[in-house]
């Protein structure tokens, strides 16, 4: 079971500074383990953030994004106390959704 | 020492794949079949959108920068100082290279590519209205390489490039 994302959203002067850290190995499919076997590709393909049902950011990721991806974005029109939802989907079809609050 | 072993195993794998026929060829065939299926579906007037949505966009399957640019439709991108791409000149650890991209252009979409990675396209970002055209994240870099940022604003593509030296490769994508 995938671990929760770490979400930190800070509003200042009308701009929300959002950092999300996803817990995911982001295996590229070109790495070998200690016994020399290829570790199959397994990585996040989609990521999105919603505030009040409105999408404020989305991304398609490839295996070139680092392990435990950290995404830092900025958007307007967020208020302190407002909830936001971050979600991802990976190349195996696993999904995860977590909520954060704008501070 | 352990890092060195990992790095060597990446190299070994890359040549092994080259000799044995790369898995991406198989993916290409699968995608070709899916496309064929889609065309048949279209011909029959069946909905194909659901099937298409589960596939990775073709630019993520491209194995060279030029091929990725063609698939994105950005071969004619204009270099612009309005696109700011920040990266270290030298990255100690290629498995996590900090980068940020921002622009003063009215950009709704941005992409990051690493020329020498096995899969050059690293990520594609969408900025809906109200979201600043800014992204910071960490990327993998297999070796010294040019990093390219593409930004789409008002239907045109703009770019910025940076050369990054990598001390320790990160089996990049």
Describe this structure as you would to a colleague.
- The complex is a heterodimer of chains A (103) and B (173).
- Chain A is 0% helix and 54% strand.
- With 103 residues, chain A is mainly beta.
- Chain A has a single domain (6-101), classed as Immunoglobulins (Immunoglobulin-like, Sandwich).
- In chain A, the strands form 3 sheets. A 4-stranded antiparallel beta sheet of chain A has the order 6-5-8-9, with no helix packed on it. A 3-stranded antiparallel beta sheet of chain A has the order 1-2-7, with no helix packed on it.
- The mean pLDDT of chain A is 95.
- With 173 residues, chain B is an alpha+beta fold.
- Chain B contains 4 helices and 9 strands; from the N terminus they run ααααβββββββββ.
- In chain B, strand 8 and strand 9 form a beta hairpin.
- Chain B starts with a helix and ends in a 5-residue tail after the last strand.
- In chain B, 35% of the residues are buried.
- The interface between A and B is large, with 33 and 42 residues.
Notable characteristics:
heterodimer; A: 103 residues; mainly beta; Immunoglobulin-like; 4-stranded antiparallel sheet; 3-stranded antiparallel sheet; B: 173 residues; alpha+beta; 2 domains; 6-stranded mixed sheet; 34% strand; disordered N terminus
